Amino acid sequence: MSGEKSPYAAAAHVPLIKSPSLRVPTQVELPEDIHPLPDSVTAYFFLIERQFVYPFTLEPHVVTMESSRRSTIAAHAARREAYLQSREDEKEQQKRDALRKIAPGFEPRGSLLVPTRATSVPPTPGNDNLAAMPHNSATGHRHTRSVMEDLVDQLAALDSNVQQR
């Protein structure tokens, strides 16, 4: 075997160049209060109860880190749910607005719209138009007459005048 050449024999004499971007890592220093594990874990068992003996020196740190992590995750989940809910509500509102542009007063979850017949009182001579209009004094809202209502009233008055002659 000494007579055979190694496949790496040619690379044995090549000089290596160290990259300036590489460095040797610093040595890790262990804290003094760390408890080294023994070769056997049988010393950590109670012989009578067969329970594992665990030193809880690191436990408060782990518990506080875990509780803060869980609270952070819960806060993120709540924020995400609120954001998704607001997006869903916004989409629903846009749909409702689009439907209301097509059919004013339409509410998808509401009851069916039922037309109501409006009664009109033909104006009589000497009767004021404002006095004939319904007036809700509790809310201060006054029904304004539309052009079509005025036209219908005038046509009805003309029709009644023609029939009386």
Description of the molecule:
The chain has 165 residues and is an all-alpha fold. The chain has a domain at 58-107. Helices cover 40% and strands 2% of the residues. The protein has helices spanning 59-102, 129-132, 147-164, and strands at residues 135-136, 141-142. It is elongated. Residues 82-143 are annotated as: Disordered. Residues 82-100 have a biased composition (Basic and acidic residues).
Task: Give structural attributes.
165 residues; mainly alpha; elongated
Q: Residue-averaged pLDDT, rounded? A: 77
Secondary structural class:
mainly alpha
Instruction: Determine the N-to-C terminus distance.
Output: 140 Å
Helix content: 40-55%
DSSP helical segment count: 3
Sequence stretches where pLDDT stays below 50 over 5 or more residues: none
Q: Order of SSEs, N→C?
A: HHEEH
Q: Strand order across the biggest sheet?
A: 1-2
Based on CA atoms alone, the radius of gyration comes out at 45 Å
- Percent in strands: under 5%
Largest beta-sheet characterization: 2 strands, antiparallel
How does the SSE layout of this entry go?
Elements lengths: L58 H44 L26 H4 L2 E2 L4 E2 L4 H18 L1
Antiparallel strand pairs: 1-2
